[in-house]
Amino acid sequence: MKRVLYVLFTIIIIFLSVYGVSEWKSSNEKKPDVGNWVGTWSASMQASYEDGVSHKGFENQTVRSIIHPHIDGKKMRIRLSNTFGSEPLSIEEIHVAVSKSGSGIVPGTDQQVTFGGEQNVTIPPGAKEFSDPISFEVNSKESVAVSLYVRDKTGPTTWHPRSMQTTYISTGKHVSDSDASAFKTKEDAWFWLDGVDVIPDPSVKGAIVVLGSSIANGNYSTVDANRRWPDYLAKRLNEKNSDVKMSVLNAGVSANHLINSKPNKGENALERLEQDVFSQTGVKAVILHQGLNDIRHYPEYDAKKVIERMGQIITSAHDQGLKIYGGTLTPFKGSGMYTSQGEKTRQEVNHWIKNSGEFDGVIDFDKALRDPEDPEHFLSKYDAGDHLHPNDAGYKKMAETVNLSTFK
Fold it and tell me: Which residues pair with 80 in a beta bridge?
């Protein structure tokens, strides 16, 4: 009997050591920081153009990107994307630092970023990669410089053109340089860097993703000034007296469409939902402000076609457990592709956005920016000059139009 009990006891010990302990270990390996990370910054990536810097890529160069975080955090990690690459992407070394001015960084703030404990990382085609967490104080009042050194030819890049933020490029490895002397080349684009996460104060309840096109992207706002309307919204949400603390992640792609995927304009909004919205860290809600490009470029599209695509996006967001808010389409009379039929379609789409009840809430950007005396036009003080995009004041007005209690 003792022998039987001994055998049983031995079997139980072996079972626990093989399954129980390994299961406990596996569970613990997944637990650190899970649920605490929230995106503080993001950029929607797209395929390279057929020529130019994105097609040529880089070799033996340092690419220093400047990003502006939307919430504070005591730990950070970065996310790199080779989503549209056809070959593995090898990055030899990556550093982060507090941005000073131009391509300069604040001395003493530079830190190396690792991936699985290694300073270099290779990302397969179609993949993304998170870095290891680092103890880096992220302050939403300060920009962050992320410097990537590539030794070998990268080939065509995954990138975000028209960043409204200067990226600086040098020959050779200069990831730790605090001065600007080595960075001779400038580009209005982000390369490979598509997200930065932090572990914020517990009062931060998550992130809102703004899904849109050039207006979300901030076209015609002041370059290097962070005056896109999602930037202004993030500032409002994180003021001391705000009852709702949230990050704002910008998923705007210049010239993007709801329905069609066009060369150099990114995948259509429905196709990029998983990549640009659902996979974002800590996302709780979506603001959809898109459709005007479809109306402008396809005057044969009626309101029903645009509304149908919006409905598909709403359903997809709800299926993910996310709330989704609709922004009305802003005026475009006087712009290069204006038609009276397109204006009629815009009005019909806006009526549906405001009255259908399909969205969890509505933000009336049209009312905020239009001329009360001539509502098919922008109010001149908010017009960037092309009668299609807001200027800095217009972007600020858009952010002020959002009722923050909507997100409670």
Answer: 129, 193
* pLDDT, tens digit (0-9, with 9 covering 90-100), for 77-124: 999 999 999 999 999 999 999 999 999 999 999 999 999 999 999 999
Contact at 8 Å (CB) between 293 and 349? no
Judge if pTM exceeds 0.85. yes
DSSP state of 227: -
Which percentage of the chain shows pLDDT scores above 90? 91
Task: Give phi and psi for 244, each to the nearest 5.
Answer: -125, 110
Environment class of residue 312 by beta-carbon count within 10 Å: exposed (0-12), middle (13-18) or buried (19+)? Answer: middle
CB 173 within 8 A of CB 92: yes
C-beta of residue 287 within 8 angstroms of C-beta of residue 325:
yes
CA distance 184 to 359: 47
Side by side, the strands of the sheet bearing 38-42 are 38-42, 193-198, 76-81, 128-130
Residue 134 has pLDDT above 60, yes or no: yes
